[in-house]
Fold this protein.
Amino acid sequence: MSNTLQLLSDHWRNRYLLMRHGHSQANQQGLIISSPERGVADFGLSEHGEQQLAQVVIDWQWPRPTRVIHSDFLRTTQTAARVAAAFGLALSVDTRLRERHFGELDGQRDEHYPRIWALDAQDAEHQHHQVEAVSSVAGRMQAVVREWEQKVSGETILLVSHGDPLQILLTALAEKPLSQHRQQTPLMPASITPLGEQK
């Protein structure tokens, strides 16, 4: 699956591939797993997610990555490892790519997501239920890209993260109000969105 966006491509020194982790055990169980305490050691890829990753690697249609940077949650680590192994690359962890923290809702049913997203649409700074503010997520995600833009050039960098953080990053890069992040086309598990791809 691919979502191609041309965002400020004239200004990029590198090409970026934004990848959402494959279908996970948390997806399978309908749970919000957003804290490092729950997500780093547990709730990795589901069997379906493993199959997705195997197919993505076989059908790879994007530029060959030169670096793989990932969230330290198990589901993103396992996703990144499958791609890195296919291209003979080392993995690099960046905790700024972690899932958005859902505070008091962590570990609860994922039916709570729409209520938080409705609050996001009203205020990107809100922290109801101790949820991480959209603006905070945008800040840490953009910092990862800025850092790589300063460090290297001419590379294809795969960033493996989570649904909400990636949609928030895409919203920020498109210079849209962060409150509109749920208006982005939802990123499906194991999907890849290229950024900075020159035509």
Q: What stands out?
A: Strands lie at 15-20, 67-70, 91-93, 156-161, 192-195.
